[in-house]
Every structure is written in C-alpha cells, then in structure tokens.
Amino acid sequence: MNDHYAEPVAQSPTSGRLKFLNPETASLIDRALQEVGDFGEVRLLVEKGRLRFIQKTRSEKVTDSER
Question: How does strand 16-17 pair with strand 40-47?
Fold first, then answer.
C-alpha cells in the first residue's frame, strides 16, 4: 500500500475538518472491513501523524457450537 497523505476534504458538523480521512483512505478502510468478513479486525496504524498502514486480521470459527 502507498503512503497516503490525508488531506482534509470534508466538514463534519460536530468535529470540524477531518485530519486523517479523505475519499481514498475512507474507501481503503471500507474495503478492508468488507474483506475481514464476519470475524476479524481492522487496525489503522498512524506514524508521525499520518495514516501509514491498514492491518487486517481475519478469524475463522473453529466449531459451530458455543460453550
């Protein structure tokens, strides 16, 4: 993944201008959430004030029954 400089591009009525998200980074995060499926997590890694990496962990259920 490329380094993405998140230029503020949208206004939020409650928090003012966005610092980290732009349409491209929001799309990457949305795609990552879709890819992890029903079980998993998406982590956003920030380095030096910039969103640098999106880390995806996908988990699979081992058994169907709950204990």
Answer: unpaired
